[in-house]
Specification:
Layout lengths: L7 H21 L6 H8 L3 H4 L6 H24 L5 H18 L2 H12 L1 H24 L8 H21 L17 H15 L3 H5 L9
Helix pairs in contact: 1-2, 1-4, 1-6, 4-5, 4-6, 4-7, 5-8, 5-9, 6-7, 7-8
Organism: Arthrobacter sedimenti
Keywords: DNA-binding, Transcription, Transcription regulation
InterPro entries: DNA-bd_HTH_TetR-type_CS, Homeodomain-like_sf, HTH-type_TetR-like_transc_reg, HTH_TetR, Tet_transcr_reg_TetR-rel_C_sf
């Protein structure tokens, strides 16, 4: 459980604790992290920690939620003014990869959540997917993407972004383990190949329906 601050100073202190916790969890892992390490990194007294969080699990869950909120905002903000769904996909994926390059802790902490806090993990992915589903439904209604199950499509698209980002943002080279610090963004040629795959998968199938059968084929 976490407690919302009542003052601007309290908000700043809580934000410092979250920032420190993100760094500590990403660098040493949940089990090696401690409240002492977090408070020392934040420059905050140990007793102050408990004004805002019940313990290590509480601040871990809050870090997951905070990362989720920030990455969703980055993607939504980037795609907001896109003229169509395909351009929204491009803008959203670019924003996601840019965020993960700047905040590689997102991957490391979400991976830990699978074992440390499965509920927080599920909430993280579900919040992203729910917004994605609504966007796909709207695009289907306007004929911008083909008819499909938007829930399946949303999970598939999120999986593409997750693994492309892991390979080309988080890792230095194929098979290499994650390293510390900000990472490079996805190479342009990789991004374009990914987008071609996505665009073909989402493209409306009206053209195929209106193409007359060739001679010798069944109608």
């Amino acid at each position: 459980m976490s407690t919302a601050p009542r003052t601007a100073r309290g908000n700043r202190t809580r934000a410092k604790l979250l920032e420190a916790a993100e760094s500590v969890f990403a660098s040493v892992g949940y089990h090696e992290a401690s409240i002492v390490k977090i408070t020392e990194s934040a420059g905050v007294g140990l007793g102050t920690f408990y004004l805002y969080f019940d313990g290590k699990q509480a601040i871990f869950d809050e870090v997951v939620e905070d990362l989720n909120r920030r990455v969703r905002h980055a993607m939504t903000d980037a795609a907001r003014n896109a003229p169509n769904r395909m351009e929204a996909e491009r803008a959203g994926f670019r924003a996601f990869f840019r965020f993960t390059a700047q905040h590689p802790a997102l991957y490391r902490i979400i991976r830990q959540a699978e074992f440390v806090s499965p509920g927080a993990l599920r909430l993280h992915y579900t919040r992203i997917v729910n917004g994605y589903i609504e966007g796909l439904k709207t695009a289907q209604a306007s004929g911008e993407v083909r008819e499909m199950d938007p829930t399946v499509a949303a999970w598939a698209l999120m999986g593409i972004g997750e693994l492309i980002g892991m390979r080309w943002v988080l890792w230095d080279a194929e098979g290499a383990p994650p390293v510390e610090g900000a990472r490079p963004e996805v190479p342009e040629e990789v991004f374009e190949e990914m987008m071609q795959f996505i665009e073909r998968g989402l493209a409306p199938d009206s053209a195929a329906k209106t193409t007359p059968p060739q001679e010798g084929t069944l109608p």
